[in-house]
Amino acid sequence: xxxxxxxxxxxxxIGKIEIYSKGDKxxxxxxxxxxxxxxxxxxxxxxxxxxxxxxxxEKALKEVGEVNAAIFEVHQxxxxxxxxxxxxxxxxxxxxxxxxxxxxxxxxxxxxxxAAMDDDYMRARAADIKDISDRLVGILCGVGADGxxxxxxxxxxxxxxxxxxxxxxxxxKVLSFVTKHGSANSHTAILARTMNIPALISVDYPEDCEGxxxxxxxxxxxxxxxxxxxxxxxxxERLNKAQEEKMLLQQLKGKENVxxxxxxxxxxxxxxxxxxxxxxxxxxxxxxxxxxxxxLYLGTDDYPTxxxxxxxxxxxxxxxxxxxxxxxxLDIGADKQVDYFNLGKEDNPAMGYRAIRIxxxxxxIFKTQLRAIYRASYYGNLSIMFPMIISVDEVKKIKSIVExxxxxxxxxxxxxxxxxxxxxxETPAAVMISxxxxxxxxxxxIGTNDLTQYTLAIDRQNAKLDNIYDSHxxxxxxxxxxxxDNGHKEGCxxxxxxxxxxxxxxxxxxxxxxxxxxxxxxxMVLRVRDKIRKTGA
Length: 537
Ligand code: PEP
Ligand code: MG
Fold this sequence. Notes:
Helix content: 40-55%
Oligomer: single chain
Shape: globular
Strand content: 5-15%
Strand order of the largest sheet: 1-8-7-3-4-5-6-2
Bound molecules: phosphoenolpyruvate, magnesium ion
Largest sheet: 8 strands, mixed
Structural class: alpha/beta
Distance between the termini: 53 Å
């Protein structure tokens, strides 16, 4: 039986299914006469929960790092939240009921309140509040920590998994997480990704599959329960190959991106959203070289607010813990259409109203994004780059808008850091004036996907032309060299963030050309590192 879900981390897992049991925490409403005794039971449970969370923080700190462990500190703080505490005590005293009931009721009320909020981040906090109240109820009911019953590693199926549940599981016994609920942005998904385990959400599995053999295919987002022998053989072969490669590449984590003759290059990763950050960490990239910020605009039916954007950028900046994160400003139009922008139909959308052209034409959209990025700059090491540049004039206009935004933040008393500003070099015009552009910015990042399209006059979306869409074309390679030289003359660092950056047949060429940085998809980081380390005399 094959069931489709949504993958939050790729990979293959084969094993027996265990359905996660949260233990019996059924809460019954009981009338009590001694409400003071119930209040002290609650206070004691709160104390125990706080100690458990402190221990979980220490465990997570070792396993998944400080930034990802921080959720348990947040839970500790939420546990002490005066509104939450007062609400629990209020229910005990006003209704003369048991502490378990008051906690469960308050947890449900608060979770409902968060879930109804008009903000993805706050909605995701509903799961945290449920997690806290479940923990308290568990302590009050005397139910201990949950574990895996099987002696063998399993594919763990659950309705949903709270972060505290995933982290306290013995990881060596989990082959994959598969849940009915949960979101790609939840901490659970992020933790699962950080743990480097294939994980699926939105899987409507049958309840009677405990103990059955299953295959989780995180590439396709499917679970196959009771697979036929032919499928098992096929996937076992894929798993063995992938594991061999993974093991070899894992040995490169923590190693430098340095050639045999001592030349170093920065190796960053490209992301499309907050949920990709875990893969960046799991693959040990030293930074994020391209954050395609348009995902924030694509997934909704209205403009994302400054606050929504701020929270997304802040979360990435904080999770990367001081490593460089380059946010590319909105790059919509052409193949990335968003209804509410009302861009209208164009004969040549790839050469049309898109990216920086829209931002300069509709500065209110641009300013909202820049304000959000600058606000988030305070929380990490952010840089900004601008797509589809064709002239110095555009860069001057951008810089003046940036100054306006910074001034408005100063006036509002909002702290921010100075950030590096760069441009994407993805039009032949930008290449040809890269000497002039270099005087205006701190860095260049070459978008070889579009640069190839515009240089060779080949629509990158047209499958009929795939065989002649050639990023190795000498015209492109000469352009790359020209951009590096012009950038370096003015003290700009120069990188590649298009797909070509991950082409290991050119890694040596890029290093010889003098590139300072390559930004590739997270899953390619260790492969490219491997190539770099084998390059040079
Ligand atoms: C590029 O054009 O190479 C690039 C990195 O940007 P995108 O693929 O998002 O257009
Ligand atoms: Mg591009």
